[in-house]
Amino acid sequence: MLLSVRDMHVSYGSIKAVHGVSFDVDEGEIVTLIGANGAGKSTTLNTIAGLLSPDSGEIIYQGENIAGMSAHSIVKRGMALVPEGRRIFGNLTVYENLRLAGFQLDSATLNKRIKRVFEIFPRLEERRDQLGDTLSGGEQQMLAVGRALVTGGKLMLLDEPSMGLAPILVQQIFEILREINAQGTTILLVEQNARMALQLAARGYVLETGNIVLAGPSQELAQNPEVQKAYLGG
Questions:
Q1: Burial level of 133, CB count in 10 A (0-12/13-18/19+)?
Q2: Interhelix angle 167-182/107-120, nearest 10 degrees
Q3: Which end of the chain has the lower number of beta carbons within 10 A, N or C?
Q4: 0.85 surpassed by pTM
Q5: Taking the CA atoms of the chain, what radius of gyration do you get in angstroms?
Q6: Residue 138: exposure state from Cβ atoms within 10 A (0-12, 13-18, ≥19)
Q7: Domain locations along the chain
């Protein structure tokens, strides 16, 4: 088991955002968390990544409880977050964004990983000297994923990668995620586009108001009448 979240509770002050969430991610899997706005999806991801501290519960990553550990320490252990809204450095070039993501790496390793990013995203190589602010939404999302790849983590946490993108770009991003997974990166995906998420992932969990209410193979969830009605337009 690469990641195991056990009875995790998270609050914002007096507001309870996540209520005893538990789920697992095996090495090599793509697992998705789906749910409406405010369900606790991003909070769950940010807590795993160390941006928030849980009130209680365990986050076991590669056999170690990382609950409450700093984000910096978690990245060093091989986990990378692609945050909602991309959050690239708009005043830096594509190349500078990628180099900054790998500031802890030796030069040879950094150059090798940036080369891999450019192989996966040829459009980024074409725009390597272009400022982040001048990229399209799709290109910014590619750069956000590319930064995570530079860290070389075993587990990539993706928060709403389809947000704000045209359907054709969403399809392209999801195809690239499938390729990245096939090359050995485990993916935990938070996504409002439930149809696309369930097509990409092997398993899924449905969050409602901070609780997991359904779980199972993606195909079963996609055929569930409750999921179809709430998230698939059925």
A1: exposed
A2: 130
A3: N
A4: yes
A5: 17
A6: middle
A7: 3-231
> What is the fold, at CATH topology level, of the domain defined by 3-231?
Rossmann fold (3.40.50)
Residue 8 to residue 170: CA distance in whole angstroms: 31
The runs of H, that is alpha helices, within the chain are 41-48, 71-76, 94-101, 107-120, 122-126, 137-151, 167-182, 194-200, 218-223, 225-231
pLDDT 10s digit of each residue in the chain, 234 long?
Answer: 999 999 999 999 999 999 999 999 999 999 999 998 889 999 999 999 999 999 999 999 999 999 999 998 998 898 988 888 778 899 999 999 999 888 878 899 999 999 999 998 999 999 999 999 999 888 998 898 898 889 877 999 999 888 887 888 888 889 889 988 998 999 999 988 899 999 999 999 999 999 999 999 999 999 999 999 988 875
